[in-house]
Amino acid sequence: MNDLDAGQSGGAAAAGVIYLVATPLGNLEDITLRALRILGEVSLVACEDTRRTGRLLKHFQISKPLVSCHDHNEARRATELAERAAAGESIALVSDAGTPLIADPGFRVVRAAIERGVRVVPVPGPSAAVAALSVSGLPSHDFAFKGFLPSKSAKRRAAIRSLERSDSSTVFYEAPHRILAAVADTRELLGDSRRIAIARELTKLHEEVLRGPVASVLEALSARPSQKGEFVLVIGPADDRAASGSRSTTAAPPAAPAA
Question: Can you list the domains of the chain with their CATH numbers?
Fold first, then answer.
């Protein structure tokens, strides 16, 4: 980054701007210095859950007005936030964890802001999809992020079946009560030897990564009495000759208290 770039990104929060601020997945040490500064300088913070974001701000001794912006009110809230920014307010948009808009609310806000000529500025940071891919042991030079797998079985199976000949890694989010079914479908549709990785509770106390052929990962998961936490499923390409043949489990060091 040259001096001009540093100056443009490092100044005080500007008026009439919406900042997309990434927040920690779990470990609060992952918040960036720039994110803290912006959150401390904006007029308003728009967030999915005001209680959760309130705890995050309190931890860092930041006091700001909060408004909710979630799946159920985003269409209405988008216009309000864009018009407030157009009138000169500086607004930070955050999700409960990670980068806003990435399988989280915020797209309508960004679209409304752009339509009104409001600047939209990214304040990058944690993303569960990228974090999971980076430790998956699967090819990362070419990948696709597909958000949450469909909740209905037929649509989920169709999404997985479409990867039969994929030449890139594919990242999905999945709920704990559906992860076993998703991995079982992957085994049935893509074969026992298709390599996958499952990252659970990234950056948190019980962080874990399972890697290997889908048959062995499914066996490991099925042996557990229940599935807990937030899951990221990475399905490797159809031809992954660079991968090793063993499954491994890694645990994270103790994390800072979650927000």
Answer: 3-123 (3.40.1010.10), 128-251 (3.30.950.10)
